[in-house]
Amino acid sequence: MTQVAPARSAKQRKQDTLARLETDIDAWVATAGPEGGRPHLMPLSFLWQDGSVYVSTRATNPLARNLVATGKVQLTLGNTRDVVRIEGESEALGEDEISPALADEFAVRTDFDPRAIDGRYLYFRIRPLLIQAWREVNELAGRDLMRDGAWLATD
């Protein structure tokens, strides 16, 4: 049996979560179609900037269609022993609606430039509403770091 580390404080979890958002590149992104439609899960590269997560995918992808239809999304980073879970609302941005500087930063950060690929790609700005983070069962009770878009832990 492995020994479990002591639970982190809310402040430390927030710092660790922000560090992951700034350094991780990929997340699992989950959506569902409108009116109880079929769920869809896909790994996507992301950029964290100004409190939002940016992703991009082909406009015809089921994930993109679900995001356009509902705006509801869940993302997870990490593994099951160090997870960050985000529920958010998304806004679709066409290539003409995203600044060239942001598109450039996305391409550099993720090593993926949707502008260089055939087919129509959309960017999505995801505003986190709920952020949870935990490592082991001893952190489950305090896993909520953000609710209704507001951080619960102070710096």
TrEMBL record:
Ranges where the Pyridoxamine 5'-phosphate oxidase N-terminal domain occurs: 27-105
Top-level taxon of origin: Bacteria
Signal peptide: none
InterPro entries: Pyridox_Oxase_N, Split_barrel_FMN-bd
Residues annotated as transmembrane: none
Protein's name according to its UniProt entry: Pyridoxamine 5'-phosphate oxidase family protein
